[in-house]
Write a structure and sequence with these properties.
Two copies of one chain form a homodimer.
Chain A (H helix, E strand, L loop, with lengths): L2 H10 L3 E7 L7 H17 L4 E3 L13 H7 L7 H13 L2 E10 L2 E10 L2 E7 L20 E4 L2 E5 L8 H9 L4 E5 L15 H13 L2 E5 L2 E4 L2 E4 L3 E3 L5 E3 L8 E7 L1 H6 L32
Parallel strand pairs in A: 1-2, 2-3, 7-8, 8-9
Antiparallel strand pairs in A: 1-14, 3-4, 4-5, 6-7, 9-12, 10-11, 12-13
Chain lengths: 298, 298
């Protein structure tokens, strides 16, 4: 098959326009944060976006000062404030929206992401791998790694530090995921060089490439109670190369990209003999990789 | 613990000097290739290197034109031509050497890497994931993912396309590996942008970062029977950042770096609450990741 044939075939299969919304939530300002998210969703939709991804904990803010505050800023899903507002926006603008919320279930909190679409609430993801002081407020996720079927293809959600675990991307790809939507609140990693791509972007590119996954990372910006967030939102194609270049380190911004699922699925075939997911040597991989029989890691 | 204390402690724990030898083997010229490798090993050792990594299939060349030629250029391990010569060099220069050979075992060939040291032959690795036309000549590796103990720490070997499989790095890290030595013959990946870091370097950085592994990638250069190789050898530290910047795309070169195993093992601790290998949610990871009960993938 020649490259030109491949391009023609791809053009006949429609692309999806996706958007990563980079914004600056302020801890405690739920109504204002939600308002900004709704304005940016409308802007992205009017620019043609069919899938819009917002940052992690976008309505509550991230750096809580107490358990009381964390519970105060949390909400139920899907009945809560943010999910309901995003449902309305998704219906109004005919888009899918993925956004991060502090989810409250009685005396438990989860760092969650919700997906809503024109037909209403689609599903929830609960962050599996907690970072830093999140251990003071949240329970570890207990919904596993679900993949949601939409008219555009198979979508999954993961959150921030989950992206440090290649197992996460593998398990989503093995379930057929096409696009991973990642609300994040990335913080600086030690050793970052001046002008070097941030490590979180490197991880997204590597995991996209070896799994044939599109990845939409929407990060926040700003400094909250002394914690800097690094922006640099990115949309990566299934071949591992950025479709939308890293966003600003400190400004609110919407990144857009067109994703073609036919090209994405084809990108998993590397040579006549090689299909990256099928080349896995599961005959020698070891139960050390994880077999589902251990206790959760609180 | 303050940063200055940490630096002082690290300085008391000796660093190791390692070298990645980027050279241009010529297919069929075994004696000449070996001669060049011995000259570069001597140069690296006289510059202080204690571990020297050579490219994949460095003595045979890579692009075989027939099974007869592949068998002709292969050799036994450790009794063969290259391993014996490297053993002598390792003894003479007091270094560890890791190099790629086509290993012949009766009517079977393996794309192998051997490790030799001042005390003689240490061990062999057989490439687990075959790339492209390697499927015409080689059997898939059947030695698993061994970790070898040396006076410097725990060393492992993998080869080229093995680096596309995050499972490989995870299983080595879970066995305590400190340094992964990777003879490679990297070829161009589709979609590479002008001036962008090559995808293989991105993969090495990502896998180093999420596993706390040092990775020494020694690639070849040149074009062999129409196949271009991309150079860009790299040595990555356990925090994921390059210790020696990508090598030239087309010139013979030796890259050097100092690796401190105390700093490497400390780099796995990311926050008070986070240690990257121990944060793995093995309670939810699925047997899809690999459980060792399937047939080998020929």
């Amino acid at each position: 098959m020649s490259t030109s044939q491949s391009t023609n075939e791809t053009q006949e299969f429609p692309s999806i326009t996706v958007a990563a919304v980079q914004m600056e939530p302020r801890v405690g300002c739920k109504a204002e944060n939600l308002e900004v998210s709704l304005r940016l969703i409308a802007e992205a939709a009017s620019a043609g976006a069919q899938i819009v991804v917002l940052p992690e904990l976008v309505s509550s803010g991230y750096v809580f000062s107490s358990r009381e505050e964390a519970f105060e800023l949390a909400e139920s899903v899907p009945a809560g404030f943010s999910t309901q507002a995003w449902e309305d926006a998704a219906r109004q603008h005919n888009v899918y929206i993925i956004g991060g919320v502090a989810e409250r279930v009685c005396h438990k909190l989860y760092n969650a992401a919700v997906m809503v679409g024109p037909e209403g609430y689609v599903g929830t993801y609960r962050k599996l791998h907690l970072w830093g002081d999140e251990h003071l407020y949240f329970e570890v996720g207990d919904f596993g790694l679900p993949v949601f079927h939409t008219p555009f293809g198979r979508l999954a959600m993961i959150i921030c530090y989950d992206g440090w675990f290649p197992e996460v991307y593998r398990l989503l790809a093995m379930q057929g995921a096409d696009i991973v939507c990642m609300p994040t609140n990335w913080v600086p990693m030690p050793g970052q060089g001046n002008g070097a791509m941030i490590m979180a972007n490197t991880l997204a590119m590597a995991n996209a490439h070896v799994n044939g996954l599109n990845i939409i990372c929407a990060n926040r910006v700003g400094t909250e109670r002394g914690q800097l967030f690094v922006g640099n939102s990115i949309i990566v194609g299934a071949d591992g190369w950025p479709l939308a270049a890293p966003g600003s380190a400190d400004r609110q911004q919407i990144l857009y990209a067109d994703i073609n699922l036919k090209a994405s699925r084809q990108s998993r075939h590397l040579t006549t003999f090689n299909t990256v997911l099928r080349d896995r040597r599961t005959d020698i991989y070891d139960p050390m990789l994880g077999t589902g029989w251990q206790l959760p890691r609180y």
